[in-house]
Amino acid sequence: MDLYFFDFDKTLYAYNFRMRLPALSLVTGSSQYHLAKTWWAGGFEKRAEAGEWNTSEEYLAEFERVTGAHLTLENWQEARALASTRIPASLDALALASTFGTTAVLSNNPSPFAESLPVLASDVTKIVGENRLVSCQLGVRKPDPKIYRLALDHLGVRAEDAFFADDSAENIAGAASLGITGHQLVYLDGVPQTDALHEAIERFAHRNN
Q1: Residue 72: which region, alpha, beta or left (left: phi > 0; alpha: psi -120 to 50)?
Q2: Are 174 and 148 in contact (CB under 8 A)?
Q3: Domain chopping of the chain, boundaries
């Protein structure tokens, strides 16, 4: 059975950090500059994505320690939802892929995202089910080839039977280094080129015909 991996941010859902940061500032009472400088520029989000804080509780406690700002999981979800907008044609591509094989999400994100994906994107989880692989759970971020090997092993699929869609060329290269067929979802004038994604899925699905 073929496997179709999809990135989440900027592949299945558009993501705009400039919508998220003001919401976090409003709910915490901390300035956008302070939050961005201490947490994101300080490298803590990337460390969280690599699995340093395995649970939402640990993540939120560390966020408060570093920024001095108290944040609940509900606050985190609300701000994240404001920054995330579904890409209908990409969701159609995910649904198309599900007719050809197993589908899964493979995303660089921290533990609150892993816990909250069914809330943030029920349309995605309806298709992929429990196949939600988040870097914080695997302990490594894309584009490190190790994350793709772990994902393949988790789902019991060979690299040559896997297709991966992501907006990042670097992430596609990491997957390709293992023999996974990759497709970069490119943007032209801010518009994702989803027709090419649909065509790539069709080509992969019928490659042996």
Answers
A1: beta
A2: yes
A3: 2-14+86-205, 17-82
Cis, bond preceding 143 (omega within 30 deg of 0): yes
Q: Do 140 and 50 form a contact (C-beta atoms < 8 A)?
A: yes
| Residue 133: CA count within 13 A, CB half-sphere | 24
Answer yes or no: pTM beyond 0.90. yes
Give the DSSP H or E segment for 82: helix 73-83
Burial class (CB in 10 A: 0-12, 13-18, 19+), 45: middle
What confidence tens digit (pLDDT) does each residue in 27-66 have?
999 999 999 999 999 999 999 999 999 999 999 999 999 9
CATH code linked to domain 2-14+86-205? 3.40.50.1000
